[in-house]
Structure formats: C-alpha cells, structure tokens
Design a protein that fits this description.
Distance between the termini: 53 Å
Shape: globular
Structural class: alpha+beta
Protein name: Transposase
Organism: Priestia filamentosa
Largest sheet: 7 strands, antiparallel
Strand content: 15-25%
Strand order of the largest sheet: 2-6-7-1-5-4-3
Number of strands: 16
Low-confidence stretches: none
Mean pLDDT: 87
Number of helices: 15
Number of domains: 2
C-alpha cells in the first residue's frame, strides 16, 4: 500500500526586511530564475528527443495496456524523469549557481520537470520561461536545510530575517505548534512596493479560530443534506432550512471595470509606440523580431493593472472563504454537480450563422466569467474545509443525473435550451438553478439519480423557501445576472 497523504495547510507571515535583506533576496530570486530556465530548457530538449525517436513512434501502434510500460521505458532511456533532471542540476549548482542551496535546486528541478511533463500528458501545449523579475517564489524540500524557519527567524544562506508574529495572533501561535514540512519565500508587489512573506507549510489541520467576544470556537457544520448547483457566475444552494441563489464574488465587479479601462489605455499606448509591430488590420506581426517600445505612461499603467489584479484575487478569495463557511453551516452531507470548466473556457470550433440576423455567432464562451468569478475555486476551498471536519464533497454523475432535464412530478426527462431559466409546473414557476440544486440535494447514495420519493415529501418546504428567495431577489435593488432569469 502507498503512503497515506497527511493533511497540510499554509501559514503566511510577513518578513521584517532591511534594504540589504531585500537586495540579497532579489539576488537569490534572480539566480533561481536563471537556473529554473536552464532546467526547463534541458527538460524540453529531452522531451523533444524522445518524441522524435523511432522508439516513441512505434509505441503509438501498441495496445493501450502495452503503451504504459513502453512509455515508462522510453522515459528512462531518454532520461526524461524527475530524478534524472535533479541529477543534471547537481553540477550546475556546484559550478555556476553556488549561492543557491541544494534543497532549493532540487525543488526548482521538480518544478521545471512537472511543467514539461504536462506537455507529455497533453495537458499543456507549451511552457513559459521566466523573464527577469518574474520569479516570485522559491521553496525548499524540507525545514532541515536551505530555506528554514528557526525560533521566529527565516534562515537562508547567510540571511537571518525576523518573521513578524503579533503576540495577540492566537491562530499563528497555535499553528506553529504543528510540524513544519518546508518553507516558501514569496515576493509580492503591493501598492507599488515589494514585500516578502514566508509560507510555512505545516502538517495537520488548521487550528479553529476563536470569537474574541464570546470566547467560543468559530465555524460549525450543520446537519442534513445540502445541494449545490454552480454555474459560471452564480451558485444555487438548497438545504432543509435555506434556499439561496447568489452571485459569486460580487465585490470584484467594480474592480473588473477599472481593469478594463486601464487595459484599453495600455492597448492604445502599445499601438502608438509600436506601429512597426502591427499589420494594417490591427493584428500583431508574428515574425517581426524587433523589440517592443514601452512608454513611461505604459509602465505606470502596467503597475496599476498589477495592483488591481492583486486586489481582485484577494477579494475574490475572501468572498469564496466566507461563502464556503456559510455553506458548511447548513449541513453535513454535501452534493454538487461536476463541471468541466476547462471545456467552458475554450472557444467553439464550429462556425454558426445566426438565422435571424444572418451574421456569424461569436465563438467566445465563458472565459471572461470564469476568470472573474473563479467558480472552481469555491469548490476547492469547500472541499478543503470539509476535510478538516472529516466530511466529503460528493460529486454526482452528471451524465446519468441530468438535473436540468429531470421532472420529479412526471418522472421523465425533457431537454431544455440554456436560455430557458424557469420550469413550468402546475404549482407555478420554479427557477431552474434552484430546482437543479433541490434535485441534487435529494440524490440517491449511488449519485446517479435523484430520490423521487424524497423530492415529493420535501417539496412543500422547498416551494415555500423558493418563493421567499425569488421575492428577495426581485426586491434587492441590485442589477442581477441574466442567467438568474429575473
């Protein structure tokens, strides 16, 4: 049997850096970036050599069962493994990168190899080399050597930097009682100033937070089933006591508008300063190898955009954390529909002509919505938090379940267009997403079908909560997302 993975969590703490500390850290980060690019390039070479070989071409003709062993043999022959790349990095550290410790070098080698391995498995089409100043995190393989935490100080090479921990920070002091697996140094640009943080990767589960007013632990899970139907911008949640249709991270909408204004300014500046890089129709000349020219105003706008992107990410994550905590308070059995978000990001391949207008339909799908709202993140955070309570997030079989098509009154399935946001029943209209969440909540143990008898017995309670939620949305006074149908 394989090793059982132990739970881990991250404690982020700021570093009390002097000017000399910042200069030294920036120097080490730059050396790590150069080494990472060298390792990434070497890993790519080995992958390309393997793909061009006759041995690799013959593997494609084998049966699937035989392919696995043959691919493993080919990777060993062409030294395309994680351990071979770590072995390759050893002389580099001894000769050219003496100031980067062996533990950090091993992690950089693993990081470079995993990036290229995604190409091998078809999960990525290319890898990105790090430009100057783009390496924003380095980490060690353990807390015994290299980057390590000792008695309130970060120690790395000759650096000994104090870690800021408030005396009243109960959470941090309690978390530090757990074993530290390894440390990570993170560089962030916050309000135009570079700041450094240490990420302590700790073994175990995070300590429970305490309410300063009552002295009681915060956050408790409820009892009963909870059904979740998540879309690209909204989430429908149904339990025995609550029925809600909410917009995901509504706080980021205003920031997104500011980002769009800055991006348009940047685009105009880029076109004006680089007319030699664009075709007459406005597209970029791909084979033009001349350097880009950036104005001072463009560089200022780029820093402003980076700051807004940082704020958007932090606000979105905080919003998702609050929502996840509230969902957990509703029950102890959670059911959600599986979604292929990567597929929703891709543009459509078919070119379709609109029958009404005679124009071509746009090939864009939900890339912008997914980037702004990050619906997959809320599920990741929810699954992580449920693990602390030893609870699971059950994913129903979407292909067999068909929550958006099922009618528990007639016990049959009816296909509906994406624009149809309401279900017509004898008792009245029911919002489509809320009804799907209701069916998911009442799923069977096999997660392939809904329990019709349970739906019928709990219908009156759901209908009452549904009408209250619809009335709330109509009178909330805010602009609602079109997919809500209100």
């Amino acid at each position: 049997m394989g090793e059982v993975k132990k739970s881990t969590f991250i404690l982020q703490l700021p570093l009390h850096t002097t000017n000399s500390d910042v200069a030294a850290l920036n120097k080490y980060f730059e050396l790590s970036r150069k080494l990472y690019n060298v390792l990434l390039n070497e890993s790519l070479k080995r992958l390309n050599l393997m793909r061009q070989s006759k041995q690799y071409q013959l593997i494609k003709k084998l049966d699937k069962k035989e392919q696995t062993k043959a691919y493993r043999k080919a990777r060993e022959d062409f030294r395309f493994t994680k351990y071979d790349l770590i072995k390759f990095s050893t002389p580099l550290r001894i000769n050219e990168f003496k100031q980067v410790d062996s533990s950090t070098v091993q992690k950089l080698a693993q990081r470079a190899f995993l990036s290229v391995e995604r190409m091998f498995y078809g999960k990525a089409k290319r890898v990105n080399f790090k430009c100057k100043g783009e390496m924003d995190s380095v980490e060690g393989s353990s807390n015994r050597q290299g980057i390590k935490y000792r008695d309130g100080y970060l120690q790395w090479n000759k650096l000994n930097i104090k870690v800021k921990i408030k005396e009243c920070d109960y959470y941090a002091h309690e978390a530090l009682t757990n074993k530290i697996k390894y440390c990570r140094i993170v560089r962030k640009l916050i309000r135009g100033k570079i700041r450094f943080f240490i990420h302590l990767v700790l073994e175990g589960i995070p300590p429970r937070k305490i309410d300063n007013k009552t002295g009681m632990f915060k956050g408790r899970h409820g009892e009963g089933k909870v059904g979740i139907d998540i879309g690209t911008q909204t989430i429908a949640i149904v339990s025995k006591n609550e029925t809600k249709l909410l917009e995901l991270a509504p706080e980021v909408n205003s920031i997104h508008k500011q980002m769009r204004v800055i991006q348009r300014k940047m685009n105009r500046s880029k076109c004006m300063m680089n007319p030699h890089k664009f075709n007459e129709d406005g597209t970029i000349k791909r084979r033009n190898g001349e350097k880009w020219i950036w104005s001072k105003n463009y560089l200022k706008l780029r820093y402003q955009l980076a700051e807004l992107q940082r704020k958007q990410a932090d606000i979105r994550k905080q919003s998702h954390y609050r929502l996840a905590n509230w969902i957990i308070s509703l029950g102890d059995r959670f059911y959600v529909e599986q979604m292929n978000y990567k597929g929703l990001q891709k543009r459509t391949k078919e070119t379709i002509i609109n029958e009404k207008t005679g124009r071509y339909n746009k090939k864009k799908r939900f890339g912008k919505s997914l980037a702004n709202k990050a619906p997959a993140m809320i599920l990741t955070l929810l699954k992580q938090k449920l693990g602390y309570w030893e609870l699971e997030l059950n994913k129903i079989d979407t292909f067999n379940f068909k929550a958006s098509q099922y009618n528990h009154f007639t016990d049959d399935y009816t296909k509906k267009s994406l624009s149809a946001r309401w279900n017509e029943f004898e008792c009245g209209k029911i919002q489509r997403d809320l009804y799907s969440a209701y069916l998911i909540m009442n799923s069977r143990d096999d997660l392939k079908n809904t329990d019709r008898a349970l739906c019928i017995s709990s219908w009156n309670n759901f209908k009452q909560l549904h009408d209250i939620e619809v009335e709330r949305l109509k009178n909330c006074g805010n602009k609602l997302i079109g997919s809500m149908g209100l």
